[in-house]
Write a sequence for this structure.
């Protein structure tokens, strides 16, 4: 499995042609306590850069963007009752959606962990 | 960019404490500290928080008080020594130039505290209108701290026991660790607490002394906003402005009875007409579940007709859910009325809710 990162602080981990997407621990830390996550419908098609979710902290709403093209195959329903999972386990139980990749080569344009760490330094 | 922003006397302390600094009303202010907005909010409701509100405008007015009173909606003759009142500075249309506190902490005229974003305009307006009758003196050399929360009295009992004799909306001059301060028993959180006006040169030392008390945590502007929202208190420029009157803002209680009878404040005719006609929109509280509704979100009736707008909203940590304030058509103002709020185009069920969302915890003796 490969994990890649966007400049907007989404992470994407790919297993076969299915990618799991969320926001990074760094982003969650910057937002503060997450109180609500608005997720898209399963089946929705996304193009890279589309706003597909909104994260609400106490203070503000922040958009989350699709790191790649694809179709939503699953959403993390658990966030509805426990949005704090985004803060507690951003890259684990705090995942947002699963996407069926339309073009795996798009991953090559994203940052690896070392590059992302440098990006947030 | 920060070079162009003003700094309060506590700026270095905020940075040292790990405050996340943001521009607010031309000041570089801490929106939160490492504890975070949620933690800071809860700490203030459970124990006590220290807020730097030095960006607000402090001034002293000495002279013909009728000239000052003519600009306000209170009755200054009803404010005795040691008392404070919340009042409004209306415009000729009945709109609200600002909301402010006026008090008599000592024998030296009226002490005013106005909002940061409006202070220059307020003071210029008061100076122009009272020219030749009274003197308004700005007090930029004083910092302003707010100590808020149920344990504020315990802290004050150790450091300045005399101040604990005050009840809500009383004020006076006290000695706090050797420094002469003006203090009032008031705040902007719905909790018991004290607002402390202190010479800038002593502010850092006194702030550290307060923060050294076990119960006290530093609180940023983020939690200040969620605390005041739960307390049902207006944020100037959002929940009230030049285009909303005291009647619309549900602030008729801030109009002194004598002044209403005399009808001698700016916009009094507009206000009297609105009270008589009972047709204008009203500021109300709203609760909903799920997504917080933010400022600017439209409020609709159950048939989809737009009937109002949210003027401030977010997540209420003590309510443990989204809360908002907004203006709605009068038919929908009664608590319990079901409406929708359009959040990113999606109608979310909301209920008109009596303010405050969290019961006030003022000390009334």
């Amino acid at each position: 499995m490969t994990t890649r990162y966007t400049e907007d602080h989404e992470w994407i981990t790919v297993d076969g042609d299915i990618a799991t997407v969320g926001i990074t621990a760094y982003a969650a830390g910057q937002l503060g306590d997450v109180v609500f996550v608005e997720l898209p419908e399963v089946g929705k098609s996304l193009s890279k850069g589309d706003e597909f979710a909104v994260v609400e902290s106490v203070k503000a709403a922040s958009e989350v963007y699709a790191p790649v093209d694809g179709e939503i195959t699953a959403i993390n329903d658990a966030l509805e009752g426990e949005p704090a999972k985004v803060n507690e386990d951003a890259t684990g139980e705090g995942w947002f959606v699963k996407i069926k990749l339309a073009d795996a080569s798009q991953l090559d344009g994203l940052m690896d962990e070392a590059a992302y760490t440098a990006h947030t330094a | 960019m920060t070079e162009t922003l003003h700094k309060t006397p506590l700026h270095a302390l905020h940075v040292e404490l790990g405050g996340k600094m943001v521009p607010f009303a031309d000041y570089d202010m801490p929106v939160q500290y490492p504890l975070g907005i949620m933690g800071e909010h809860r700490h203030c409701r459970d124990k006590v928080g220290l807020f730097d509100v030095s960006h607000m405008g402090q001034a002293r007015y000495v002279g013909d008080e009728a000239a000052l009173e003519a600009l306000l909606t209170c009755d200054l003759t009803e404010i005795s020594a040691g008392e404070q009142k919340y009042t409004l500075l209306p415009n000729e249309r009945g709109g609200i130039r600002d909301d402010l506190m006026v008090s008599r902490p000592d024998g030296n005229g009226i002490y005013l505290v106005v909002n940061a974003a409006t202070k220059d305009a307020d003071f210029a307006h008061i100076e122009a209108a009272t020219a030749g009758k009274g003197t308004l003196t700005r007090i930029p050399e004083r910092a302003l701290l707010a100590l808020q929360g149920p344990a504020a009295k315990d802290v004050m009992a150790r450091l300045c026991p005399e101040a604990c004799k005050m009840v809500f909306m009383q004020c006076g001059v006290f000695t706090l660790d050797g420094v002469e301060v003006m203090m009032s028993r008031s705040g902007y959180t719905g909790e018991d607490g004290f607002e402390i006006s202190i010479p800038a040169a002593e502010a850092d030392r006194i702030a550290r002394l307060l923060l050294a008390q076990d119960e006290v945590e530093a609180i940023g502007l983020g939690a200040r906003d969620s605390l005041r929202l739960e307390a049902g208190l207006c944020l100037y420029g959002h929940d009230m402005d030049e285009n909303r009157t005291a009647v619309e803002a549900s602030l008729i209680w801030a109009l002194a009875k004598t002044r209403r009878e005399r009808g001698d404040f700016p916009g009094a005719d507009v206000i009297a007409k609105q009270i008589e006609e009972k047709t204008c929109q009203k500021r109300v509280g709203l609760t909903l579940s799920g997504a917080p509704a933010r400022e600017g979100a439209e409020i609709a009736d159950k048939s989809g007709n737009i009937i109002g707008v949210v003027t401030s909203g977010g997540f209420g940590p003590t309510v443990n859910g989204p809360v908002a304030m907004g203006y709605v058509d009068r038919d929908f103002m009664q608590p319990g009325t079901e409406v929708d709020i359009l959040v990113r185009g999606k109608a979310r069920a909301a209920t008109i809710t009596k303010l405050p969302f969290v019961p006030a915890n003022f000390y009334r003796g």
Summary: Chain B touches chain A at residues 31-32, 36-39, 41, 222-223, 225-226, 290-292, 294, 314-315, 317, 322, 344 (CB under 8 Å). The first strand of chain B starts at residue 20 and ends at 24.
